[in-house]
């Protein structure tokens, strides 16, 4: 039986930053999973499922400062374990364990764990889902990178969400810092400061560089000239090629990648969805080439939800496990953020916790009516045997009104009467037609038990057709 | 591109008792999930997803001696957390938190965690899946219990696995112990000893009762007379009603339940799949009525894999959270054990890690051929836009033989040539026909770019039809 929208009580609760998923929320979430994995499969993706628990040493040294957010499992004797922090490192661990796998496109949709400050209304949780797609292996330059960006466009098109993909390249960024005069040991900290430009004004970022990180003011200003630039991919390549920057070898090699990419993105019809943004730096240490972050439009650079997908090329990570070096490029969708956006947009007028039954089996009768429970069970069994979703009320003698109300929640009602059952017949009706009173008076048309399954299926397709659900 | 079967290397590994799922294993596992959830939905089940992390106090005191198998998360400041041990207690916690939910059929398919001794070959892991279906709420007696048993039959029928459902009733068992002369405080320990009868001979179980648990020998013998009995449900009810046993009030009430159940199981066509087994006791403390365990036939009482599903009625658990008392009955499928059985049965002759692409886009050409990469991208994009699963080789100038071999992995090949592309045409062929040589010579028939999507879809349905996949 469907229940009403649940209202949680106070003391009993889920762990901080975690939540239960049920009803409409779960359906919407599964719609996102389905849409995403359909696109992943369209591109030849193979599913991989790794454990939530990983050996602590597998995760060690992969997340920089964010390692403090890893959940460790208590030492109860035996191995030291942690909960996975993302899906990228477990994938790299899997690749390193299977040295005969030289090329693979894999996807994974699963929960990850971070002891971060939760903000549920903005879709930031401690237990949350990631949807990852990665292409591992040696291929010709920038072809897999272009396909990953194409996948992003296809997923958000299918979800009917407008997006912009901000692109940058670690080589260009590092070269730019070198040309501007940043000492090698300060490149990562300065990079982290630059990455804040999507939320923080330039003056503050500059202050952090000069006051906190000890950069010369003229160096900071020079950085500022570059990193506040963004625009179309081709336009930005042209601008950068004209600068003194392009004398730097790292910048040169990054620009060559970006030119190839522009060529491929044009062929794949992705070029209009990207923007080249020199302020994009991404926190994680392991990126080595192209990096990207996806924001929804028209939210632009500042929005409540933050990026809805992100990723990049990481050619060194698998090799750090000492087995084989496998270059990779990948992306991760922040499902809970996408969920928050779609949920806000969706009208909240449908009843929650509804079962998906197609048929409600009920009994009707006059004086001395015994409820026909065994008969309702038999008819339900007949429908289940045919794979039809059917329910009945778990009462020996259910009230008539209660049954008619329950029937209104499903497309088709099968009504049993004593005399009709004895004659091998039941009544069949479109349960949602008319209001309660009418429903109660219209007791449907007689069909034989032998033809019931066929008649129900035919009525269900008629109803589906009329509702345009196909 | 598909890779070969992966061979794991030594040092790097997953945590003890956990495993990665990929390729054919994952497809088989998903088939089990899909089959099970189809049946759950057919019975009006609503999905619920709870967190892996639960507050430690939520799990406390629910699992008796097995509590030592719970994984605790390290105290890193903040709440004390554990990993869920099953899906029943989190469901009870959810019910207790939502006091306006009076009746619900919910299902959940998710990983649970137990620090048990793993035995992977027998499907016993530390991280493993459970598939649970529970009916919560006040209904007329034994109707939900009967539907749960019906669900078990439908799931294993769909999986094409022969089973027997062993039934017992906690009231009958407790009454039987009382009549035999077991002191009240020894009922649970004696019950645990009896539960071992599926793996241990009676003489050893008796020894445990008398020597370890201090039961009088004549009491043990009396228990032995009863608990070694099993048979058809109606037959056993008749036997028990004739005994002195039935004077006991608990036994009486249990037998009344079993009689109702026999009636309902007949209506639902489940009666031939059950056996009444007085030695079935079930370890968990929280069961209060009907209990059951499912074994595969012909394995009978002793088998490597153990029970493949189990459950029972637990009317007191939700009330222990002090909010509302909600009677429940439910079942849990041991997916990994079912997987082990089906996997052993399945022929292992298919290539692993195969992508599910339907179309391979390739280029062919003579001297001076430039690989047509952008053109392959454009054609792939055209197919992706139409929702078709398509791949191409991520090389600027792929070798011809390499492409023809890749093409053999998918149903349809689209072959691009320079002149044909300029004329707005491509070649289309059934890629799996003939051997490598023939494939290479037969370059398919010309179709226009405009009609490509339509032609591909029509060829794909022709191939599917011929393979009888529909």
UniProtKB/TrEMBL annotation, chains A, B:
InterPro entries: aa-tRNA-synth_II (IPR006195), aa-tRNA-synth_II/BPL/LPL (IPR045864), Anticodon-bd (IPR004154), Anticodon-bd_dom_sf (IPR036621), His-tRNA-ligase (IPR015807), HisRS-like_core (IPR041715), HisRS/HisZ (IPR004516). One of its GO terms (molecular function) is ATP binding. It comes from the Eukaryota. Keywords: ATP-binding, Cytoplasm, Ligase, Nucleotide-binding, Protein biosynthesis. It is found in: Cytoplasm. It holds the Pfam family HGTP_anticodon. It catalyses: tRNA(His) + L-histidine + ATP = L-histidyl-tRNA(His) + AMP + diphosphate + H(+). Belongs to the class-II aminoacyl-tRNA synthetase family. This is histidine--tRNA ligase. It comes from Fusarium mundagurra.
């Amino acid at each position: 039986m469907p229940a009403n929208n649940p209202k949680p009580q106070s003391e009993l609760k889920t762990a901080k930053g975690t939540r239960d998923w049920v009803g409409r929320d779960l359906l919407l979430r599964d719609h996102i999973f389905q849409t995403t994995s359909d696109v992943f499969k369209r591109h030849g993706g193979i599913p991989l499922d790794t454990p939530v628990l990983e050996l602590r040493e597998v995760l060690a040294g992969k997340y920089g400062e964010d390692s403090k957010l890893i959940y460790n499992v208590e030492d109860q004797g035996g191995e030291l374990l942690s909960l996975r922090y993302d899906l990228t490192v477990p994938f790299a661990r899997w690749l390193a364990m299977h040295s005969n796998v030289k090329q693979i496109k894999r996807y994974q949709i699963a929960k990850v764990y971070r002891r971060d400050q939760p903000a549920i209304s903005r879709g930031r949780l401690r237990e949350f889902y990631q949807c990852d797609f990665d292409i591992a292996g040696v291929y010709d330059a920038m072809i897999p990178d272009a396909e990953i960006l194409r996948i992003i466009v296809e997923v958000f098109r299918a979800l009917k969400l407008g997006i912009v993909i901000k692109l940058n390249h670690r080589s260009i960024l590092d070269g730019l810092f070198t040309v501007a005069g940043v000492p090698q040991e300060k490149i990562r900290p300065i990079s982290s400061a630059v990455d804040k430009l999507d939320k923080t004004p330039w003056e503050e970022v500059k202050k952090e560089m000069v006051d906190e990180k000890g950069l010369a003011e003229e160096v900071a200003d020079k950085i500022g000239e570059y990193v506040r630039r963004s625009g179309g991919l081709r336009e930005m390549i042209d601008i950068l090629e004209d600068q003194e920057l392009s004398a730097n070898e790292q910048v040169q090699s990054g620009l060559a990648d970006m030119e190839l990419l522009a060529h491929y993105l044009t062929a794949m019809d992705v070029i209009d969805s990207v923007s080249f943004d020199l302020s994009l730096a991404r926190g994680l240490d392991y990126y080595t080439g192209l990096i990207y972050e996806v924001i929804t439009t028209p939210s632009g650079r500042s929005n409540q939800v933050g990026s809805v997908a992100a990723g990049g090329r990481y050619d060194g990570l698998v090799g750090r496990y000492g087995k084989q070096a496998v270059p990779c490029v990948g992306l991760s969708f922040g499902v809970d953020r996408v969920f928050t956006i779609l949920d806000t947009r969706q009208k909240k007028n449908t009843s929650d916790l509804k079962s998906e039954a197609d048929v409600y089996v009920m009994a009707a009768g006059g004086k001395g009516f015994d409820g026909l429970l065994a008969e309702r069970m038999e008819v339900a069994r007949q429908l289940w045997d045919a794979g039809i979703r059917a329910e009945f009320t778990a009462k020996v003698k259910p009230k008539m009104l209660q049954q008619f109300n329950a029937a209104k929640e499903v497309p088709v009602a099968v009504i049993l009467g004593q005399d009709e059952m004895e004659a091998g017949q039941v009544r069949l009706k479109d349960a949602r037609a008319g209001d309660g009173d009418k429903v109660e008076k219209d007791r449907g048309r007689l069909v034989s038990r032998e033809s019931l399954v066929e008649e129900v299926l035919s009525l269900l397709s008629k109803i589906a057709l009329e509702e345009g659900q196909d």
